[in-house]
Amino acid sequence: MEQRYATSPEQIPGMDTAELRHRYLVPGLFVDDEANAVYTHHDRVVLLGAKPVTGPVALPTFPEIRSEYFFEHREGGIVNVGGTGTVAVDGTSYELTHGSCLYVGRGARDVTFTSADAASPARFYLVSAPAHTAYPTTLVAAGQGNVRELGDPLTSNRRTLNQYIHENGVRSCQVVMGVTTLHPGSMWNTMPAHTHDRRTEAYLYFDVPEDARIVHLLGRPDETRHLVVGNEEAVISPSWSVHSGVGTASYSFVWAMAGENQSFDDMDGFPITDMR
């Protein structure tokens, strides 16, 4: 488990590209037959990728979280961004097709990831946060959450947003999670850009063509920087950072938050004309 310590907006002006990528970009989560994790001290969120190919991959108990098992004091949302696979939670199996989401509640002991076809392996993306109440493990099939159509083709941000884990959907303590898919010809994932001063958010970009990239904006609205992001790479957005991006082709992304509240609309928008 890699540790990422918390940063402040005052550090941004002094960071070069290499340090920005080291602090906020999370590449290489999906490695054959491994579970790889990054622990960010922003709201103590864990990002994890599991890619079972030749056999099942068990969710490890990382010493950094000081627990007997991973979900002893945590909860998490899992989205499959690869081929069809199965997540077994304490003996119950849940099939996740591409884009489906599974919420795993506090207290789950044994979690195992399996692909249905080694030629097209599943890639499970887990976002976890501390939890103080146990909610039931719940599966939501792709496209079966609260679906919202947002944006306009005239501003190149027509998109379909699926809310899976949220205050009016699958219950959780802190984690809020969903998937947004850009329509063909649209490339901005959100505009105006915004912050959540009460929550950390992470984006995992997926279904990005091999020859395409996302230009992801981060930093304070008056002191922005950018990251060039490829397929199945994640970006950590502290509460003070904007998070918005534009791609060279259409794509999807998993958005996940944890922090003070679960209100999807608790955000502070910044018109592009006010950003620097």
From TrEMBL:
Pfam families: KduI. It comes from the Bacteria. InterPro entries: KduI, KduI/IolB_isomerase, KduI_N, RmlC-like_jellyroll, RmlC_Cupin_sf. The keyword Isomerase applies. Keywords: Isomerase, Metal-binding, Zinc. Pathway: Glycan metabolism; pectin degradation; 2-dehydro-3-deoxy-D-gluconate from pectin: step 4/5. It is an enzyme of class 5 (isomerase). One of its GO terms (molecular function) is 4-deoxy-L-threo-5-hexosulose-uronate ketol-isomerase activity. It catalyses: 5-dehydro-4-deoxy-D-glucuronate = 3-deoxy-D-glycero-2,5-hexodiulosonate. Its cofactor is Zn(2+). The keyword Ribosomal protein does not apply. SUPFAM superfamilies: RmlC-like cupins. Belongs to the KduI family. NCBIfam families: PRK00924.1. Its EC number is 5.3.1.17. This is 4-deoxy-L-threo-5-hexosulose-uronate ketol-isomerase. Zn(2+) binds at H194, H196, E201, H243.
